[in-house]
Structures are given as structure tokens and as C-alpha cells.
Amino acid sequence: MKIRKFRKTDAKEVCNIIRRCDKEIASKDYPKEVINFWDQNLTEEYINQKSNKRKCFVLEENGKVVGYISFDGREIRKLHVNPDFHGRGIGKKLVDKVEKLCIKKRIGKIIVKSSIFAEKFYEKIGFKKVKIIYSNKGHVSFKLIYMEKKL
User: Fold this and answer.
1) Which helix (H) or strand (E) covers residue 100, if one does?
2) 140 bridge partner residues
3) Angle at 73 between CA 68 and CA 75, to 5 degrees
4) Contact 141, 135 (CB under 8 A)
5) E strand or H helix at 2
6) Residue 73: what are its φ and ψ, rounded to 5°?
7) Region 73-88: what's the mean pLDDT?
8) In which element (H, E) is residue 81 found?
């Protein structure tokens, strides 16, 4: 397993991983209209545009992208692992990478707006729930868990 900086050529694989996570996992906690809303803007172009503004990394196994993290300032914006690779420490390795960058820059805490499914993962790696928030995007509203970890 190897973590490296995101490349524009990774966008297609990253989109596929995010879509699988939304359809196979998030759909258990969120209604179809929320999953559809998330999916409607998910394009290779969108991922590449965001990568220009954020620090983004992928984790590869045998040359295949199996995990992705997007980070902005002190906030994890996206963390997705191919569902076939869940439970193998990939998400933790990606978060560790971001934490090391924060420590190096003397950022005292890291935050994330977690999905319902990911809340237990973040708790397991030291994040604390701060509050429940509801994101309203047009006619779609969904629950997220605002979490933070002191470094």
C-alpha cells in the first residue's frame, strides 16, 4: 500500500469509489433523494476542480486506487474507501497522513462533518462528537455529525 498525491488521472477511479460508497453504504442511512443529490454533481471535472483548492491523496494497492482523502485547512472534506477494502486500515492511514500535515503546520485540531456510517470509524481513531448538524441543499436536508480531534 502506498499513499501519494492525487493526480488528475485518478478522478475517474475516485468518482467510482465515492459512488459505490454512497450507493452501497450511505444509502442505508440516507434517503434516495440525498444520495441522488450527492451523485448529481459528482464528476471527474468536479473532483479535479476541488483538487486544485485542497490537499488530496490516494492510497494505492497494486497500482489501483482504493482510497481517497480531500483536506482543506483543518477539515477533512472527503474520505472514501472502496467498499471491497473496508476494515483494512486504509481510512486510518489516509487520516494519519492528514494529521501529520496538520501537526507539521502546528494546526491544533482537525475537524470533519461525518456521515452517519462513518461516525464510529472516526470515534475509533480519536475524534469526538461535538454536535449534530443538518445540511440543507435546496430541497434536500441531511444529518451530519460534526466531529473534532485535538492533535
Assistant:
1) helix 90-104
2) 137
3) 55
4) yes
5) strand 2-5
6) 70, -100
7) 96
8) strand 75-81
> What pLDDT, in 10s, does the model give residues 15-58?
999 999 999 999 999 999 889 988 988 999 999 999 999 999 99
Of the candidates 76, 60, 89, the one whose C-alpha atom is nearest the C-alpha of residue 115 is 76
Question: Which helix (H) or strand (E) is 17 found in, with range?
Answer: helix 11-24
Residues present in the chain in total: 151
- What pTM was estimated for this model as a whole? 0.93
**pLDDT at residue 68, as a whole number:** 98
Supply the pLDDT for residue 136. 79
- Judge residue 123's burial from the number of C-beta atoms within 10 Å of its C-beta, 0-12 exposed, 13-18 middle, 19 or more buried: middle
55, three cell numbers: 490537499
